[in-house]
């Protein structure tokens, strides 16, 4: 990603300068990994040029002027893969500079996500086939199961549990979970658009819905006036819990995740239903129990986020830079599980996991 300054002369001969954001396909090892996933730029171009405008048009018909993301000014796949966007910072939108959670931003993000999900749910329910092309994700392929962070994370977490008496009562349950190959179940979640594991609420997911993939606009009172989503290269058809579970871990801090989880889920779902009704959806409206069933159906996915990704995110909250190569070392990954903040959170979270049925 690059911010570039463009100087040009208009047809009326006035000179002007404009800053743009240019996204190009990387080289080296990162290129090899991205190419192994496949179709990332193609997905993002389709989203910006076709899907997002269609979503916004349907919302506008109901009187809802929600704008999902920034404008894509130019896109191309040949001779080079490139996307050019408006610079949202020139419109006073700000990026989020750390991984710490923020309830106000999370709530605004959940509102926009719920509207996005509702529009796609309506379109999928009515048989619109245009969204079915979004079927590939990092977690649906074989590559992610070879990444050490995921491949070894469950076993690393289990070893950590065995060395701390506070987790003793959960070791037996978690041993059974590890033996069931939870990564395979997670992979099936991301293939469930093909009905390998029928879910209750299917939508087009953002697929990488974390706090660094939004930019926010504040008013003079310091309130969050608007929020725009960025980075649509991992959008994928699947259960709504793909985005929702990810959001709970990537937007909320430990305290809010422990104490206000249900508040956020209810807020999301109420907005989802309200949007469906405003869109004059004539099918059967989903119920909260349907969403809760999906949470349980894909509990391995939430556990994967909690025991593989959350240790890293907790480390990053301390503004600590982590080299990608470090994630491949066994020593560094085990070091992540020794973080006092992460250990303290998991001590409080495990009883909740047990009560929610995640450890069954």
Structure description:
Helix 5 packs antiparallel against helix 6 (171-179) and helix 8 (241-250) runs parallel beside helix 12 (299-316). It is globular, with a radius of gyration of 21 Å. Helix content is 48%, strand content 14%. It contains 14 helices and nine strands. Strand 3 (72-76) and strand 4 (82-86) form a beta hairpin.
Structural class: alpha+beta
What strand order characterises the main sheet?
1-2-4-3
Q: Low-confidence runs (pLDDT<50, min 5 residues)?
A: none
Averaged pLDDT:
89
Query: What is the H/E string?
Result: EEHHEEEHHHHHEEEEHHHHHHH
Radius of gyration, whole Å? 21 Å
Q: Tell me, what's the shape?
A: globular
Helix content: 40-55%
Q: Major β-sheet, in short? A: 4 strands, antiparallel
Strand content: 5-15%
With helices defined by DSSP (H or I, 4 residues minimum), what is the helix count? Answer: 14
Number of strands: 9
The span between the termini is 43 Å
Task: Briefly summarize what is shown.
With 360 residues, the chain is of the alpha+beta class.
Q: SSE layout and pairings?
A:
Layout: E1 2-9, E2 15-24, H1 28-37, H2 40-61, E3 72-76, E4 82-86, E5 94-95, H3 103-125, H4 148-151, H5 153-162, H6 171-179, H7 182-190, E6 202-205, E7 214-218, E8 224-229, E9 236-239, H8 241-250, H9 254-259, H10 261-278, H11 288-297, H12 299-316, H13 330-336, H14 340-356
Antiparallel strand pairs: 1-2, 2-4, 3-4, 5-7, 6-9, 7-8
């Amino acid at each position: 990603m690059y911010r570039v300054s463009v100087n040009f002369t208009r047809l009326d001969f006035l000179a002007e300068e404009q800053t743009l954001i240019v996204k190009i396909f990387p080289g080296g090892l990162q290129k090899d990994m991205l190419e192994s996933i496949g179709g990332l730029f193609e997905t993002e171009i389709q989203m910006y040029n076709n899907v997002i405008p269609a979503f916004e048009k349907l919302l506008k018909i109901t009187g809802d002027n929600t704008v999902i993301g920034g404008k894509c000014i130019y896109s191309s796949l040949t001779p080079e893969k490139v996307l050019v966007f408006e610079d949202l910072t020139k419109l006073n939108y700000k990026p989020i500079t750390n991984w710490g959670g923020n309830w106000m931003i999370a709530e605004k993000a959940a509102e926009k996500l719920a509207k996005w999900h509702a529009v796609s749910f309506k379109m999928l329910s009515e048989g619109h086939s245009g969204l079915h092309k979004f079927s590939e994700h990092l977690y649906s392929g074989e590559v992610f199961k070879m990444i050490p962070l995921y491949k070894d994370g469950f076993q690393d977490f289990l070893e950590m549990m065995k060395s701390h008496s506070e987790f003793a009562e959960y070791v037996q349950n978690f041993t059974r979970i590890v033996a069931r190959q939870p990564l395979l179940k997670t992979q099936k979640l991301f293939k469930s658009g093909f009905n390998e594991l029928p879910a209750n609420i299917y939508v087009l997911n953002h697929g990488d819905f974390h706090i660094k993939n939004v930019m926010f606009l504040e008013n003079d009172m310091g309130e969050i006036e608007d929020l725009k989503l960025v980075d649509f290269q991992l959008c994928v058809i699947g259960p709504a819990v793909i985005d929702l579970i990810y959001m709970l871990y990537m937007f909320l801090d430990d305290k809010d995740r422990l104490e206000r989880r249900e508040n956020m889920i209810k807020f999301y779902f109420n907005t989802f239903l309200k949007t469906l009704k405003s869109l004059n959806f004539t099918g059967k409206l989903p119920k909260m129990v349907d969403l809760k069933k999906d949470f349980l159906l894909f509990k391995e996915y939430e556990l994967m986020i909690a025991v593989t990704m959350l240790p890293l995110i907790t480390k990053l909250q301390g503004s600590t830079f982590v080299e990608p190569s470090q994630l491949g070392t066994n020593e560094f990954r085990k070091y992540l599980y020794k973080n006092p903040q992460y250990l303290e959170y998991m001590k409080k979270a495990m009883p909740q996991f047990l009560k929610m049925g995640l450890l069954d």
